[in-house]
Structure formats: C-alpha cells, structure tokens
Here is the input.
Amino acid sequence: MIEIDIAKRQGDFHLNIQAALPFQGTFGLIGPSGSGKSSLFSMLAGHSAPDAGHIRIAGRTLFDAHRRIDVPPARRGIGLVFQDGLLFPHMTVRRNLTYGAGPGAQTLFDELVDTLRLAPLLNRRPARLSGGERQRVAIGRALMAQPQFLLLDEPVSALDPGLRADVLTLLQALHRRTGTPMIYISHAPEEIRQLANTVVTLKDGAIADISRNPHPYPLGAPAPARDMLATG
Amino acid sequence: MTWTLTEMELQALMLSLRASVLAVLVSLPPALFFGWLLARRRFPGHDLLNAALHLPLVLPPVVTGYLLLLLLGRNGWIGGPLERLFDLRIAFSTTAVVIACAVVSFPLMLRAIRQSAEAADTRLETAARSLGASELRILLTVTLPLLSPGILTGMTLAFARAVGEFGATITLAANIPGLTQTLPLALFSVTQVPGADAAAARLCVLSLLLAGGALVTAEVIARRLNWEPQT
Here is the structure.
C-alpha cells in the first residue's frame, strides 16, 4: 500500500493530501502548475518535511510527524529522475550508472544498458549526450541503485516530441522487465495515459480525483488503436 | 653574461618557490571551508565574516604586515607566549615569509572557491544523496570535483600573488639574504645599488618565469580537469 496523509503550509499555499492505494504498477500524478506536484515530490523524496501526518510506502514509514520519523533521502530507497537528468558532468556515462550500484550489480547493469540502448554511450561525458540520451542514462542510474520505487519528476518535459515518445516507450519496457513501481509526475495527460495504471489528479494542493487506467497504451500500437484504448 | 644563477638569485628563487607553495598549501583547507560556508550557508554575521576574510585583499600589504608583526612579534599577543613557552620566534624568520604570503594571498583563493561553490548545482548533491551516497562520499566524489576548476584558479592566483608579495613580507620578515629574502625583496635590494641594472633584469626574468610557469601549468591542468557544462 501507499499511504499518504500529509499537510503542509507554504505561505498562502496549503497542501493537504490523503490517499491509500495499492502500491503496484505506475502511478501518474497530474495537475496544473501550482497544484502541489513539486511539493509532494519533494516530501516523498525527503527534501522537505510535511508539517503534519505520515508517509508509508509498502509498509515502510518514511515520515511520521507524530512519531518523529523522517528517513533521510539517502535511506529512502527512492530512485529519483529529474526533469533535466542531473547527471554528474565530470563522470562518464558508465560511472554515472554505477554511482549508486551495490555489489554484484553487473547483471542489472548489462540488462539496463541493453534495454536503454546505452552501450555506445558508456564512455561519453554527459555534455556529449542528447537530451533523450541523458534522460535514458538518468533512468538507468536511478534503477542501478535498486530502489524500492522510481519517482520521476516530469522526466520528458524538456524533450521534443519524438524523443519524448522514445523515453516513455523505454520506461514501459523497463517496467515490464524490472517490475519496479513508479510514481510519474507530469502536467501532460498524454504521458500519464501512456504509462499510468492509476491516475491521481491534484488541484489546489489536494487530490481532486483518483482514477484507474487499466489499459495504458500498449507498446508500438498504431495511433488510432492507442486513442481508442485511451478513451475506452 | 652567464646563464648560471648566482648564489643570491638561487636562494631568492628557492625561497620564493618554497614560501609560495607552502602559503598555497596552508591557505587551501581554510579557503575550502570558508568558501563553502560563505557560499552555501546563511548565518548571523555572514557578511561580517566575509568582509573580515577579504580584508587582506584591500588593506595595504604593509598594514597587513604590521598587524601580523603586532600579533607574531616578540612582544605580540601570539608571538610573545610562543617565545616564552616554546622558544619559538616567528617574526624575521622563513616561517614569517610563509605566513605573510599565506595571509595576503588567502582572499584570492577564498574568492575563487566561493564563486565556484555558488555556481555549482547543489541538486547534483541531492541526486547523489538519492543514490544512497554518504555525505563524505558526496563531498569527495561530487562537491570537490565540481569545485575543482575554482580550487585550481584560486591556487594559481594565490601562488602568483605569493610570488609577488613584498610589503607584508618585508614588514614581518625583513629582508635577510638566505633567510627571508624572496625574489621581490632581492630585486628591491639590487635596485638600491647603483649600476646593478643587469642583476635587476635577471631577477625580473626569474620572477616572470616563475609566475608564467605557474599560469601555464594551471592552464594545462584545467584543460585536463575541465568538463563542458550540460546545455
């Protein structure tokens, strides 16, 4: 289960979120600017603390104001993927990928390099990568740390449409291969429809709607079929 | 004219080199600490500390030297007890040259490191944290490498400033051949002697080679260290 019951006040903005959902598949977190997506991301990641409440994911308490539990970011077991990748500029792709890897991660490394098509990039520095390549490396780097789940903050919003579709397709393939649950934050409905089984809509700092999306777009389906699935 | 260095030239060159390298090494840990602190933390007295640490940059070097003499001289607040308790004399020694060079060049290193720390993207440290890295590992593998261009620039500037240091050195350490006479002090001495233009020119060339060599070395290292920013 993913159990969130948090409140946070930031100036005039009030965030008040309560949800208890089965934790599997991909969660899409959608909402306009100022709806509270970034605040929720930051509290899930442990970069800021709610004023009150708790966050429990898969039975593990990450935050509990009452019990004074606030697990530091490094021990939350959350793989973060940021909008602009945030690769370490002074390291090669290989060193970026292995930065958070535990011992014996060679099989996972090979699998991710294969799925994310990173083999030709391994010895390059981030400055020599395109936007899409950087995001592929960022996703691989987060997964190499074998997180409990992935938290992706608008990971394709800075990419052009072709690259966007490519990265989203790879995310679907990765999810099928590794089974790592994902929380995908975006303001773009088409991205959420493509990836998420559960769609949580935020508005003015609160959950406005939770809906199921039993049929995310299948991989490689032609556009009309995908549209039918999305609306059906 | 001979290409071989005279004893005075060799002594002045070696002392300048040794004092400048030591001054840079002594200044580096506090410059790293305060550069990072001033860039990343806000606290009461932040601006005051910043101004105090930059003071040797704007004070006339002779004033810095005189203040150091008040502190470290035989009757100084620190120098007095050191001499009485440990028989240590700092003023007018080679150690005094290193201290004068370190104090005067410190703000240049601090400034370069602080600017580098301000410009570095702290979110990269956040990313490293999310990958499970300890704070020490983040410091060694992310923070310091990101600051390395600034550290190198600071070290080069500080070295060049230390090589050229005159006012604070002559006040705190005097101009004793073989003990405290650095290249600028040796040059000052020969300019006081009528008809010593050739000797002055040789010392000028030595100073130029030393400072120029440092700049070229720093440039080569910077090119090796340098990575292009993500666009």
Notes: Residues 40 and 164 of chain B are 32 Å apart (CA to CA). The mean pLDDT of chain B is 90. Chain B touches chain A through 22 residues (CB under 8 Å). The two ends of chain B are 55 Å apart (CA to CA).
